[in-house]
Design a protein that fits this description.
The structure holds 2 protein chains of 2 kinds. By secondary structure, chain A is of the alpha+beta class. Chain A has 2 domains: 45 residues; 86 residues, ACT domain (Alpha-Beta Plaits), CATH 3.30.70.260. Chain A is 52% helix and 25% strand. Chain A has 5 helices and 4 strands. A 4-stranded antiparallel beta sheet of chain A has the order 2-3-1-4. By secondary structure, chain B is α/β, with parallel strands linked by helices. Chain B has one domain: Anaerobic Ribonucleotide-triphosphate Reductase Large Chain, CATH 3.20.70. Helices cover 43% and strands 18% of the residues of chain B. Chain B has 14 helices and 13 strands. In chain B, the strands form 2 sheets. In chain B, strands 1, 2, 3, 4, 5, 6, 7, 8, 9, 10 and 13 form an 11-stranded mixed beta sheet that branches. In chain B, β9, α13 and β10 form a beta-alpha-beta unit. The longest helix of chain B has 30 residues. Chain B is globular and about 65 Å long. Classes of the chains: A alpha+beta, B alpha/beta. Chains A and B meet through β2, β3, α4, β4 and α5 of A and α1, α3 and α8 of B.
Amino acid sequence: MNLTEEEIRKITFDVLSELGDKATPEKVKEFVNKRIESTEGGDIKLTLGDVSSGRVILTSFGLNHPGIVAGVTKALGDNNCDILDLSQKILGDFFTMIMVIDISSSDKDLKEIQDEMSKIALEMKIKIYLQHEDVFRFMHRI
Amino acid sequence: MPYEFEEILETIRMTEIEHFDIRTVTMGISLRDCHDRNIEVTKQKIYDKILLFGKNHVKLAKEVEAQYGISIANKRISVTPISIPFDACSTEEFIEIAKTLDKAAEEIGIDYIAGFSAMVQKGMTNGEHELIKAIPFALSETKRVCSSVNIASTKAGINIDAVNMMSEVIKLTAEKTKDHDSIGCAKLVVFANAVEDNPFVAGAFHGISEPEIVLNVGISGPGVVLEAIREAGQVDLQQLSEVIKKTIFKITRAGELIGRKVAEKNGIAFGIVDISLAPTPSEGDSIADILKAMGVQDVGAPGTTAALAMLNDSVKKAGLMASSSVGGMSGAFIPVSEDMGMIRAVQAGNLSLEKLEAMTAVCSVGLDMIAVPGDTPATTIAGIIADEAAIGIINDKTTAVRIIPAYGKKIGDFVDYGGLLGKAPIMEVRNLSCADFVGRGGRIPAPMRSLTN
């Protein structure tokens, strides 16, 4: 990660005011470098463990009948959720659909969307689960 | 699709069908700065501090549950062993502190708060002596407080004087809570080599080398492991170990994710993931069923100890690979009352106290939730504790005894607590005395660590 000049200037001023009378060019340089290092380390840690995206995995299944895909996708569209990927299988009488959706453009949070979708699930007599992508990433990717 | 169809369905199956959940997120809070010479001020400081950090604990954990679709069974709090910061207190004052902890837990909306504890493996301070005397009253006069006492360690040996005292405390606790099947004893653990970052109540406490505030997680997934073993079918034991490891790896990863997110939301440090397989009384969420699926006819059959040893070892190996923050007990729990398969094995006469004791030599954590006749002498209970502690100190592992001498009950009866504590059939204890042995008092010296045969 690269810091902008503006950020480095700010760090330098902070260090200067902290050091006060004890400030020498060498000391300032040393402290600023240290601070930049720790900021970068901190930021890297943040990206690793971050809930980085608004990506949510939607899984739905139940007895197959017409209108399931339409019902689910309409509800998602109404809530401004972006469908990034979709995969669907029919096993015997059972219908299974998995979607990767992005909820970052929706004005609702995950909990509210889950509530909306559980209404649809009840109407269509299917199960719908929405889980943040991270849980799949942690369990299935090293 | 960034994930395979099967991968996603596997996760859904684990969380929705096979009881995979996070057993507990436990917030550890240091109370070392809460002492005051005025007990009323002390109580207020304790209450304020627990509320300051814990008041949103339940709410935030529920948010994480919803976000990841993994339920968190218990939200709990552990505190510094009460005897350490409040060593100057009297028995009456310790009971008052227990009531304060209870009130704080009620206010936060959690079912248990743990840490009414003392570490007396080598000797006892006056304060620790007073605290231990207060335990039967604290446990009978509060609902949510859990207590533990460490009476042995590999470095110090076994403090038999403390063992004797604890056996009397257990008996008195049973009597004082006799109207509720001696439930007080279900909240009291006697430890050897207690760990400082254990998130599992009743034995949890916030150890003295822990930071100010920390969040620890205990995962649970016997149902998931059971299903994986059943699915694997007739494979050899090396392949079976692989199956167990793959499953544990996944649930440990999920556990760490949940723990970190709850800690992040609380704005506090994340501590450890305890990878112990912890059963619940739900059907299918049982360690006993895993052992049976591995191939023993019932728990207690010859081969049980070997099967359990392999299970426990596989759990550890996979957990350590999955997370750099493994801690706590991290093994497999074999509580009787909390595991339907264990209950059935005891009822069928297949599982005895002696076999259970052998099993504890290869797994965490010890004789857990064992109900015995109410007229079992205190000296016999002391003998059982000393035996278990001996296994712990010689093998350099944590062992514990959570025994319920159910007041007024005999073999054939049950204690029934409902919920996660479950129900336990009264088990037979050998009618042979060790009174003269434990009656000698003193301390069993620390064991040697070489020539370990």
